[in-house]
């Protein structure tokens, strides 16, 4: 299964364009402060460039974050779609295979250079950000994969009511977001190091846990 192909060439801060530095700084500031909390002034300071860089490349904060989110979501979406295409080749794909295809690009990302925040962190943080403007930017970025996953859920869990299918999707989606947003805190409480986690293996383990639970519920509910 594919992880997102998002490795950046290792470059010094001086050799990167002000636009690249602004995008990287915006992503880092967003992770630290959330959408409403990150300001253009703070982003410019983090990037080591002037606020004028914004007006040269974007019409405002929303336009900037359309590029920021588009870059990071695009890498993950591409990997998820490639994985789901492969799963679709099976006549009757197993739910665990669908979930592993979906989870791996988010939970087992390729490392970037030291200055750029990981796409998986931007992705999960953006999906859980309360800002209405952030939601408006994100919504079209996840629409295609979301429709595909709902379709797979219907195929793998036939006969569930719409409410039950909705609840199944909340389990599927919540399972990969929590580890990326709160996982480090929980790992610390349990005496683990989040950075030592084997996230590739974790993606498969979570897929197996979720698939097993949903299959058990489906069997009880439908009587199969």
Structure report:
The protein has 224 residues and is an all-alpha fold. It has one domain (66-222): Tetracycline Repressor, domain 2, CATH 1.10.357. The chain contains 10 helices and no strands. The longest helix is centred in the N-terminal third of the chain and has 28 residues, at 61-88.
List segments where confidence is low: pLDDT < 50 over at least 5 consecutive residues.
6-15, 112-116
Strand content: under 5%
CATH class: Mainly Alpha
Radius of gyration, Cα only, in angstroms? 19 Å
Task: Specify the number of helices.
Answer: 10
Strand and helix order: HHHHHHHHHH
Task: Kindly name the structural category.
Answer: mainly alpha
**Which geometry do the CA atoms define?**
elongated
Q: What does the largest sheet look like?
A: none
Q: Separation of termini?
A: 30 Å
Short description:
70% of the residues lie in helices and 0% in strands.
Descriptive keywords:
10 helices, 224 residues, single chain, Tetracycline Repressor, domain 2, mainly alpha
Ordered list of secondary-structure elements with their pairings:
Elements: H1 18-33, H2 40-47, H3 52-57, H4 61-88, H5 95-107, H6 119-128, H7 132-156, H8 162-181, H9 183-189, H10 199-222
Helix pairs in contact: 1-2, 1-4, 4-5, 4-6, 4-7, 5-8, 5-10, 6-8, 8-10
């Amino acid at each position: 299964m594919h992880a997102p192909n998002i490795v950046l060439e290792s470059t010094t801060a001086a050799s990167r364009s002000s636009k690249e530095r602004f995008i990287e700084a915006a992503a880092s500031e967003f992770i630290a402060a959330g959408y409403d909390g990150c300001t253009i002034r703070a982003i410019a300071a983090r990037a080591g460039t002037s606020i004028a860089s914004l007006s040269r490349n974007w019409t405002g904060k929303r336009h900037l974050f359309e590029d920021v989110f588009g870059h990071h979501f695009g890498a993950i979406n591409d990997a998820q779609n490639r994985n789901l295409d492969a799963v679709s080749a099976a006549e009757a794909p197993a739910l665990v295979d669908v979930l592993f295809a979906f989870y791996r690009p988010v939970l087992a990302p390729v490392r970037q250079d030291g200055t750029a925040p990981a796409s998986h962190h931007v992705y999960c943080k953006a999906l859980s950000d309360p800002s209405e403007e952030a939601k408006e930017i994100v919504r079209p970025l996840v629409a295609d994969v979301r429709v595909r996953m709902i379709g797979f859920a219907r195929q793998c869990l036939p006969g569930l009511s719409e409410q039950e299918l909705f609840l199944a999707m909340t389990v599927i989606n919540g399972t990969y977001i929590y580890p990326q947003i709160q996982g480090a805190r929980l790992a610390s409480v349990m005496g683990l190091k989040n950075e030592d986690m084997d996230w590739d293996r974790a993606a498969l383990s979570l897929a197996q846990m979720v698939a097993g639970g949903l299959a058990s519920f489906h069997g009880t509910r439908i009587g199969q």
